[in-house]
Amino acid sequence: MNLLHTVVKPAAINFALIFTSICTFILLALCLAGCTTPTNYSPSATPIAQNTPTPIDPNTPSTSAPDIAKNLGELLQQIAQQQDLPLPILEAGFQDTKSIQSIKKLVLPPSKEFKKNWAAYRQRFIEPVRIKAGKAFWEQNRDFLSQTEANTGVPASLIVAIIGIETIYGRQLGAFRVKDVLSTLAFEYPATPNQTARAALFREQIKDLILLCWAENKTSANVNQAQFNQCLNQNSSYAGAIGMPQFMPSSIRSYAKDGDGDNLIDLKVSAKDSIASVANFLQQQGWQVGMPIYFTILTNPLAFNAASQLADGEPNPKHTIQELIELGILAPERGDLLTGGVSPTSKALIVDLPYFDKNGLEQTRYVVGLANFLSIVNYNRSYFYAQSVAEFAEALGYENKSVVPIIAPTSRVQLEEKLVTPISSNKSKTVVKKKRKKPSTAN
């Protein structure tokens, strides 16, 4: 967001949303990322398509634009009244809003015939071009990444991996105007089982977008209409996610940080702002400093069968590491902090990653997701996404094991108590020995 702070006194503008009814239907094959968890939307990151969508025209309108005009007008009146904002400025900002037919196709869940394929997903994101770009991004921002890791405990390799998977470091920021996306999904969300909840969520995102753009452009009692409009018109993904880290408007307001110290937050251009924001999000989602993200299971039929019985697709840690060791799923050292494991009482979940082997047969890979795995799932509610982030980070040098300081003789129990408190739900909490400065943003 390149946001300026000059002031222009706006003139009253009559609100009109008149659209030409042009129907151009473009068939797309969309495969939403993930395993057995929902992936249509997340608070901060746009869902990742498993296959590259057919190229589309971002300006292709639907035939129901007048309905959006009426509903959007009513929503703007409510927001203006509730937030004490001048309605004419909001109306002027949204007067050319379009309904985008292709967006409604993109958010549809996969068909019943669609088979998820972890191998294809992984190949798309963990590949030489993206890894090379990741190393270059890391080198360009090495000092700030090191500083951010020291301040938050979030590994630099993980931050680099997320930005790389999301947008290849700003190369793919989306081709839709964010106000068009949010308005389309708020008032014309396709008929799905969660239609009502999703539509309500995107109406809230419109409100957050308005408040975000107003706060960034307001000087004194007024706002620069041109810059306010520019903020509303910035590019986003088909789900309304913005910038290098692909944050939704609500997440920008809650988690985005000014990393470069210019008193602006620009996630489209500023690498430092993006790095600081990703780290802050993960820290707020309970990132456990010095702890691994996932464990591979033992490679024998007993471990595979036991894991398949426990995999339920819910991102909720229900089993302790000790239980998984006793079931023969994990090796004993996974419950030992001094050998790269975690506390045996830490909670975890079984992650299922279905794929097709070289013979075209359906197979499933199982891993054990830990607290840090769930922090990544909160970024984008998809097992495929979280696992790809972890493995991308490993390709950049991340060591997926506990990192504990060498302390004078002490018992393992004392060490575990000092380092980490086991999580009891999917809302994990980070506990570290040293106090850190609390982030200034709030959820």
Explain this structure.
There is one protein chain. With 443 residues, the chain is an alpha+beta fold. 41% of the residues lie in helices and 7% in strands. It contains 17 helices and eight strands. Strands 5-8-7-6 form a four-stranded antiparallel beta sheet. A hairpin with a 5-residue loop joins strand 7 and strand 8 (362-369). Helix 5 packs across helix 7 (156-167) and helix 6 packs parallel to helix 12 (271-284). The radius of gyration is 23 Å and the shape is globular. The protein starts with 64 loop residues before the first helix and ends in a 24-residue tail after the last helix.
Would you identify the regions where 5 or more consecutive residues have pLDDT less than 50?
1-64, 421-443
Overall pLDDT confidence: 83
Query: What is the N-to-C order of secondary-structure elements (H for helix, E for strand)?
Result: HHHHHHHEHHEEHEHHEHEHEEHHH
**So what's the overall shape?**
globular
- Largest beta sheet, briefly? 4 strands, antiparallel
So how many helices? 17
How many β-strands, per DSSP? 8
| Rounded Rg | 23 Å
Structural class: alpha+beta
Q: Work out the helicity level.
A: 40-55%
| Spatial gap, N to C terminus | 21 Å
β content, as a range? 5-15%
Give the neighbour order of strands across the main sheet: 5-8-7-6
